[in-house]
Description:
Blueprint: H1 10-16, H2 36-44, E1 50-53, E2 56-59, H3 64-84, E3 87-90, E4 96-99, E5 102-104, E6 108-112, E7 133-137, H4 144-157, E8 161-166, E9 171-176, E10 183-186, E11 190-192, E12 201-203, H5 204-208, H6 218-223
Parallel strand pairs: 7-8
Antiparallel strand pairs: 1-2, 1-5, 3-6, 4-5, 6-7, 8-9, 9-10, 11-12
Amino acid sequence: MAVATEIITAQDLLDSLGGIPPARVLMRPAPGTATEADLIAINQGKKVICELVDGVLVEKPMGIRESLLAAALIALIQRFADAHKLGFVTGEAGTMRVMPGLVRVPDVAFMAWGRVPGNRVPTQPIPDLSPDLAIEVLSVSNTKAEMERKIGEYFESGTAFVWLVDPKTRTITIHDRDESEARVYGGSDAIVLNKVLPGFRFTLNELFDRLDAQGASNEEHEERPSS
C-alpha cells in the first residue's frame, strides 16, 4: 500500500492518489472526510461510480469501449465459473472493502467460493472482499502511478492476479502476486489462468475484435427477406 504522506496542498492530494486529473476528485464531501455512506449515496445515484481512498471520493473513468470490454470479460469468466461451480463475477459497480478505509471497484472481479464467507454472495453493499482476480480496463485518465498503487493494494489484501486491459494498445498486462515481473499479452496470444480458474482460456483477438464489431447496414436489413 502507498506510504502515507502529509497532505498540505491540492497537488499533494493528487500525487497521493497517483497523479490523477483533478476532475476525478469529488469535493463534496471535502477530501479526507468522505465515508462509506457517502460512497454508497453517490454510487446509487448512478451519476458517477466512485471509489473511497483515504477519505476521498475518486471517480472511476469509464467509457463505452471500456465498458464493452468489461462486459465481454464478465460474460467469458462467469460462463466458465458457472459451468464448473468455481465462484462469481462482479462488474464495474461492484464495491468491495479490500482494506479498512479503502473501497475499490474493479471493472471485473472474480471471487472463488472457497474465499467467500459462507460460500454465498454477500448481501452488504460494501462487503469485506479481496478478489482472486481483479481486472482494470484502462481509460485515458488512468495514470501509471495510480495503477501501481492499486496493484500493490490488491496484492496486500490477498488478490492473486491483477489484469490491466488496455483498449488503445489491445494488450493485457498480467500481474501475478507470486512473480516479480508482469507479462504483457497482445495480438493473437492466448491467456490461461489455471491458478484461479483451472482450464479457463481465451485469445485476445476473441476479446478485442469486439471493438471493431459493426451491425448490418440499413440496405442489408431492407434486402433481408421477411419470414
